[in-house]
Amino acid sequence: VQGPVTVTVTGAAGQIGYALLFRIASGHLLGADVPVKLRLLEITPALKAAEGTAMELADGAFPLLQSVDISDDPRVAFDGANVALLVGARPRTKGMERGDLLEANGGIFKPQGAAINEVAADDIKVLVVGNPANTNALIAQAHAPDVPAERFTAMTRLDHNRAISQLAAKLDVPVTAIKKLTIWGNHSATQYPDLFHAEVNGKVAAEQVDEAWLRDTFIPTVAKRGAAIIEARGASSAASAASAAIDHVFTWVNGTAEGDWTSAAIPSDGSYGVPEGLISSFPVTAKDGKFSIVPGLEIDAFSRERIDASVAELGEERDAVRGLGLI
Ligand code: NAX
């Protein structure tokens, strides 16, 4: 039997945290036989709410949950962490420019990266959910020089799951019929969900839908799904985001299935014309606790244009945080 895994969740009192913690406690993050120690990081005013969530976790009497600790100090919360889910972030508020947003998030992800560097376990794996996720991951990574760069990842699995679901509904097939879907680029409206390499029951997905639907319905529906959820629910995606975070880490730890891949934002090695070091979404496989970019896919002009646009946005975000001295 495996020893307990320490999982730190930031923004634990938020709405994604509320949906996420109970799935972690019930064994969905790592596996049904892996005991978990939870560490919750919150800002001081939200500690009481986090305590309320911890009370409910206790009331779940989860067999795998060994402990729940709460702190407002990153150096306490990340101590010995094997997995860190960075969910808490500063949202964009009215009148906020991109520079202000990046700066506010730098104030969160810089000290968290430094604390991870100092006190996390040697095998730490980091998933950034809090937006702007790719660039927040870059900031945290820059302040954790002793942690291998590839341990910093950002979440595009929700976009990936949304794309699978939209395509499955369109073709009236179960989601399990769809393989090799890819989200490329930034977790933002410029992201590119790719159907040219995706397969439906073994056949190329793009050939089973008409081009106008792919271009004018599918791509914008996936990219703008977050806004549609806010419009309908009056609140942003929470349970689906938590579920995607669970999927991302479960896949990272337990691997992808033979003949399939998933999407994750990981540091680029220069593949597919994405500048080295940018944390961009790629088609990835996972094995032995490591993500690898799927090599050798042919990229046609339609896809090239869209990947390049999203990657250019990531480059601009990187330049902006560089200019602010955040990386
Ligand atoms: P909430 O506002 O409900 O919760 C955020 C929590 O983070 C709050 O409890 C807040 O006190 C806490 N927090 C703020 N600063 C912190 C810090 N320095 N240390 C620890 N905790 C801190 O937001 P929620 O709906 O849970 O969303 C969280 C983040 O996920 C947002 O940035 C959101 O934009 C992002 N999302 C990312 C998605 C993705 O696919 N990558 C999709 C869903 C979601 O929009």
Structural account:
The termini are far apart. The protein is globular and about 50 Å long. It folds into two domains: 150 residues, NAD(P)-binding Rossmann-like Domain (Rossmann fold), CATH 3.40.50; 160 residues, L-2-Hydroxyisocaproate Dehydrogenase, Chain A, domain 2. 42% of the residues lie in helices and 19% in strands. The mean pLDDT is 97. A hairpin with a 2-residue loop joins strand 10 and strand 11. Bound molecules: ligand NAX. Ligand NAX binds next to helix 1.
Q: Percent of residues in beta strands?
A: 15-25%
Could you tell me how far the N terminus lies from the C terminus, measured between alpha carbons in angstroms? 41 Å
Number of domains: 2
Bound molecules: ligand NAX
Sheet with the most strands, sense and barrel status = 6 strands, parallel
- Give the CA-based shape: globular
Oligomerization state: single chain
CATH homology superfamily of the largest domain: Lactate dehydrogenase/glycoside hydrolase, family 4, C-terminal
Rg over alpha carbons: 19 Å
Low-confidence stretches: none
Strand order of the largest sheet: 3-2-1-4-5-6
CATH architecture of the largest domain: Alpha-Beta Complex
At the third CATH level, what is the topology name of the largest domain? L-2-Hydroxyisocaproate Dehydrogenase, Chain A, domain 2
Output the number of helix runs: 10
Structural class: alpha/beta
Q: Class of the largest domain in CATH?
A: Alpha Beta
Which range best describes the helical content: under 10%, 10-25%, 25-40%, 40-55%, 55-70% or over 70%?
40-55%
The topology string of helices and strands comes to EHEHEHEHEHEHEEEEEHHHEEEH
Strand tally: 14
EC number: 1.1.1.37
Protein name: Malate dehydrogenase
Pfam family, one: Ldh_1_N
Family: Belongs to the LDH/MDH superfamily. MDH type 2 family.
